[in-house]
Amino acid sequence: MRKLDAGAYLVREGDVPTHCAVLINGFAYRQKVTGEGARQIIAVCIPGDAIDFQNMFLDVSDHSVQLLTRSTVAEIPRDALQQLVEARPAVGVAVIHTTLVEASILREWVVNVGRRDARARLAHILCEFAVRLESRGLAKGDAFELPMTQEQLADATGLTPVHVNRVLKILEAEGLISRQRRNVQFVDWRALQDVGDFSRRYLHIPGGEPVRARPSADA
Amino acid sequence: MRKLDAGAYLVREGDVPTHCAVLINGFAYRQKVTGEGARQIIAVCIPGDAIDFQNMFLDVSDHSVQLLTRSTVAEIPRDALQQLVEARPAVGVAVIHTTLVEASILREWVVNVGRRDARARLAHILCEFAVRLESRGLAKGDAFELPMTQEQLADATGLTPVHVNRVLKILEAEGLISRQRRNVQFVDWRALQDVGDFSRRYLHIPGGEPVRARPSADA
DNA sequence: CGTTATCTTGACCGTCGTCAAACAGGGTGG
DNA sequence: CCACCCTGTTTGACGACGGTCAAGATAACG
């Protein structure tokens, strides 16, 4: 159970990791850097996420994980977890489940980056955050604190920081969101979902249908 | 053990599948379609791939799988596989391993589509095919039969068919590849890897180092 | 052979990237 | 308390990579 500062690496590409970390609180992101030096954010981890299953069963890490905010993480030794999976099939099934949901999110990200324009990409990623946070009880009402800079948002959507800024302003001007600093508020949740071509199916959130996609603002 | 025609669906988005299919021979691809009607190919399955672990442990499919060529597939009942995983931890570990490798490839695809220009994207995907096919003993020498049309290649790379065509011609003009119909030959394998920013690490192919990245053409 | 899918090519255009500068906030230290 | 950064956000002017539209060439296939 360690507390680490924002920017700290939990894993580096090329590492041969010995522990599996779980995010207790705070945020992190997976990233890869191209030969040209461009960065792509591959996933954002939120509190409660296990971030090292990849490295638990694969030998060398193919990407890096870095903290977005000051966070506390718990660390489980690699072989302890492996033994646990072998001793307790139910744990194995849980790992499989978690991994498959992550893969589903990755698939949606490929679509997002590959086939949607900038406006839809940003709308989509905002919707995804909102729903994921809400599903863990981390979002209060119809707003949430976006834990990333516009530059990181750009790296997550395959855009440039400049363009992210412009598009965010457009979404705001259109009355879909409003924001003060990094706090994003959903003014028209349904319209934002439409713009972002968002459906929560790919998140595979248990509990069947959303009780309410977002607590307010969609009646 | 069934034989199905090209274009046949193995899974449809929204399905609640009852079987897990394994590709015995032939090729398939995973796809998602946006609200705008644009298609994104999310992964390409080659002979030997299990294509339904996602649906084995998740309830409703978040994407479709379609055959690229006439293929034969074996089908395992869903609950049989689930019971097997619970009875035999080693099987569970194997499923986890497979799933994690697939996720790693997905991460690389996000990078490919998000942060590389058209030329690098295509070079990269060609390298990936070559190495994956070779690792299963399916590629002979320094050439292989690309099982997809340029339109499908476009959907896999987030480009348009027109642009794919242009870029392929550029790669050819640069002396990196040569092609007759869908047969792609690697004229300068090392240069192609450089252009595509390709490293086989993310494929997590066992057997440590490549005996030879490509049999010929890289001495 | 005709019919259809795929590939190829050209002209034009738009979304998004690049470059660069100005403008907050939010710490820190004098 | 007020310079002074430093990081992050905001804006503008301009350019390019890749998209769109459309036509023609080339296979594959029945």
Description:
2 copies of one chain form a homodimer. Chain A has 219 residues and is of the alpha+beta class. Helix content of chain A is 41%, strand content 22%. Chain A is built from 7 helices and 10 strands. Chain A has helices at 53-57, 78-87, 89-115, 118-135, 150-157, 161-173, 189-196; strands spanning 2-4, 9-11, 19-25, 28-33, 39-45, 64-67, 71-77, 143-145, 177-180, 183-186. The first copy, chain A, has a 4-stranded antiparallel sheet. In chain A, strands 1-7-3 form a 3-stranded antiparallel sheet. A 3-stranded antiparallel sheet of chain A has the order 8-10-9. The longest helix of chain A has 27 residues, at 89-115. Chain A is globular. Residues 211-219 of chain A have low confidence and may be disordered. Chains A and B meet through strand 5, helix 1, helix 2 and helix 3 of A and strand 5, helix 1, helix 2 and helix 3 of B. Chain B binds a DNA duplex (30 and 30 nucleotides) through residues 117-118, 149-151, 159-163, 165-167, 169, 181.
